[in-house]
Amino acid sequence: MNRKFWLAAALAAVALCGLASVEGFPRYEANGCLRHSPSLNKCIERAVQYYVTYMANGKISDRYYVTSIDPLTFPNATLVRNRNIHTYFLNREMRGFKNSFVTDVKADLNKLEFLLQFHMPAIDVHGSYRAELAHERQIAEWAKMFSSMRNSTLRIHLKGITYESEDRIYVRVNITDFDLTIGDHTVGFGWFTMSGNYSDHSQAFDLERGRNILSVVENEVTQSFRDKFQLLLNEILRLAPFERFFPSQ
């Protein structure tokens, strides 16, 4: 996967801290991370970790909600599309992110550049698999499908830009690098159901199902994860001005 996911989470956490005081959360972090503090990186790290662990469902307070990051829904993905067969990973949902650990944070607020690194013990994406002949879609197979990634490292780089709204300065971010290193990756299927004159084409279906399946699924999951994470982060950052996240004093 890639490098921007977790920076988003970190800032999301800081965002939540700027919006609401949380019981048990260090007071200085519950009011944002002081911009010029020598412990800025550590403050962001703690805020992000708190958010990931305790607020991954999207509830920031009784008043503020954002999109859940665990579970996190992904759009349907096309895995293979050639002149013979089309295959899809449908109704995808990712779980396990709330069990991740923040292992490194670096922030340059003058440049609005951030780095976040996470260790993800277990990430699972569940959904449905469908394959069909390109010109005879009634000849198809489908099954439950899962992608399990273990002991992965995620490094995210973010670049922020400021904008003004109602006389206040806000920040939005773009993911510039999203790097996912997977320790172990498994793709599996449940029982298959077939339709149409399937038996005459079973070998072709088997071939496409096994061809580069790990790398194809990994690329699709990574891109979806990156896109949804950036959307979520900016959704959070819209809730409060920059000064609320990173007060100057």
TrEMBL record:
One of its GO terms (cellular component) is extracellular space. Pfam families: JHBP. Residues 1-24 form the signal peptide. InterPro entries: Haemolymph_juvenile_hormone-bd, To_sf. Keywords: Signal. PANTHER family: CIRCADIAN CLOCK-CONTROLLED PROTEIN-LIKE PROTEIN, PROTEIN TAKEOUT-LIKE PROTEIN. This is Putative hemolymph juvenile hormone binding protein. It comes from Culex tarsalis (Encephalitis mosquito). The lineage of its organism: Eukaryota, Metazoa, Ecdysozoa, Arthropoda, Hexapoda.
